Amino acid sequence: METMAEKKLYEGMFLVDSAKAASDWDGINAAIKRILDRAKAEIVSMRKWDDRRLAYDIRGVSRGTYILCYFKADGGQIQSIEKAVQLSEKIIRVLILKTDQMTKEDIDKDTPAAKAEREQEKAKAEQTQQTEEDQQDDQEYASEAEDDIITEDAQLVDDFEETEEPEEFEKTEEAG
Questions:
Q1: Are 66 and 15 in contact (CB under 8 A)?
Q2: 8-106 has which CATH code?
Q3: For the chain, which residues make up each domain, given as ranges?
Q4: Edge to edge, what strands does the sheet with 91-98 contain?
Q5: Each residue of 56-71: pLDDT tens digit?
């Protein structure tokens, strides 16, 4: 009689080439999912953790993108997952740890990549707001300058009309 072992929660940190991740993000995710599906693992969460310079080149790669994945699997399948990663051309390395004590809140915590993305969006929004304020200030300044010019022109016209008209000089013809 065969007993079904309870699946345990694992944390997998997958390392991929940053250039490949940037050009084929969906393909990288599909490769990880395929490896986990073959091991009959159930993915709980999978997202980009961060993009960093590696301490040393691995397979000629100096920058890596880390993908953090939480999954439930039978403990006997971990070795097959690691072996599949070694054979993969898309995934450079993997580190898998048992994390039974992880809570849903721990799993859902922001990653460095998510924090950086949020900060970039905030900076972009601030920049957009500043640009809009600058444009509004420019329009107000232009409007004020136009009003000043109109006022100056009106004053010049008034000044001109108030001055005495110059006497006309009669032209005399000299007999010659």
A1: yes
A2: 3.30.70.60
A3: 8-106, 110-159
A4: 42-58, 61-73, 8-17, 91-98
A5: 998 889 999 999 999 9
